[in-house]
């Protein structure tokens, strides 16, 4: 019986070693799957990032032209307004100078309104 018991114990020990080996392989398999998943996720993230950067650059390029067109329109409008102001200045400057000279040189001596009340 002792040979049979020792053979049963040996069988159990062999079974335990085989189970430990299977558990170890399962753990290694799980670790490898996690590494593979991380690698694949990193690749997907990188691809997504590249796609979004390309989309942003395309958007930026399409709107950069709009910005320069808007700047050109503002510059043209400013030029037109400056020309209108310059034209207005040139056409009215002699008249304004003449009005100023007339006001300065045509003096009507009058008593101040407070002085007029004091004399009444």
TrEMBL record:
Keywords (A to Z) from UniProt: Coiled coil, Hydrogen ion transport, Ion transport, Transport
- Residue ranges spanning the membrane: these are none
The record's GO CC annotations read: vacuolar proton-transporting V-type ATPase, V1 domain
Highest taxon, organism lineage:
Eukaryota
The molecular function GO annotations come to: ATP hydrolysis activity; proton-transporting ATPase activity, rotational mechanism
Name the coiled-coil region(s): 31-58
Record's function text: Subunit of the V1 complex of vacuolar(H+)-ATPase (V-ATPase), a multisubunit enzyme composed of a peripheral complex (V1) that hydrolyzes ATP and a membrane integral complex (V0) that translocates protons. V-ATPase is responsible for acidifying and maintaining the pH of intracellular compartments and in some cell types, is targeted to the plasma membrane, where it is responsible for acidifying the extracellular environment.
Protein family = Belongs to the V-ATPase G subunit family.
Q: How does it assemble?
A: V-ATPase is a heteromultimeric enzyme made up of two complexes: the ATP-hydrolytic V1 complex and the proton translocation V0 complex.
- NCBIfam families listed in its UniProt record: V_ATP_synt_G
PANTHER family named in the record: V-TYPE PROTON ATPASE SUBUNIT G, VACUOLAR ATP SYNTHASE SUBUNIT G
Q: What is this protein called?
A: V-type proton ATPase subunit G
């Amino acid at each position: 019986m002792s040979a049979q018991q020792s053979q049963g114990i040996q069988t159990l020990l062999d079974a335990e070693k085989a189970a430990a080996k299977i558990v170890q392989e399962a753990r290694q398999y799980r670790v490898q799957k996690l590494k593979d998943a991380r690698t694949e996720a990193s690749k997907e993230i990188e691809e997504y990032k590249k796609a979004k950067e390309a989309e942003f650059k395309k958007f930026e390029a399409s709107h950069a032209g709009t910005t320069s067109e808007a700047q050109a329109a503002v510059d043209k409008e400013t030029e037109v307004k400056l020309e209108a102001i310059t034209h207005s200045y040139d056409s009215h400057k002699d008249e304004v100078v003449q009005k100023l000279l007339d006001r300065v040189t045509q003096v009507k001596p009058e008593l101040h309104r407070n002085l007029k009340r004091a004399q009444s």
